[in-house]
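#onboarding

Welcome to the new folks! Below is a worked example of what a typical request in this channel looks like: someone posts a single protein sequence, and someone else replies with the predicted structure as tokens. Don't worry about understanding the tokens yet, we'll cover that in week two.

Example request:
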Amino acid sequence: MEQISSIESYSELYRANREQISKGEPAFMLKLREAAMVSFEASGFPHKKDESYKYTHLEPIFQGELAHDFSPRNINFDQQELFRCDVPMLDSRVLTVLNGFFYNEEGHALYEEQNGVIYGSLQEAIRRHPLLVETIASWLQEQSRP
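Example response:
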């Protein structure tokens, strides 16, 4: 029996769940995802020959059995137990991401500060600010090309 590589396994997982992963997203996100999958299938996981990963070989991590959640889970936690900032006069926020989904106790999916900083759920940012996300994502994609 032929062993399936972890690259093929993740490619198949993506193809099988593409609709659920991309549900409600604009066309530019699907285009970016498809381009990312083509790149991943061609080059695979980073390996020790890549300078940025010379001390970390990632593929063995992904060869094991991992859970895959394509929608947020209902979880309860106390952010004060995760992190508490004791620095006086420092305004801080805790950003919690679990399995790719943004969580917070206040129920906001996206924060927009008065100084223009936007943070939170990428899915919500795409919904509220599609042109901004498209511009940034396209710029990042260009920067990652050799």
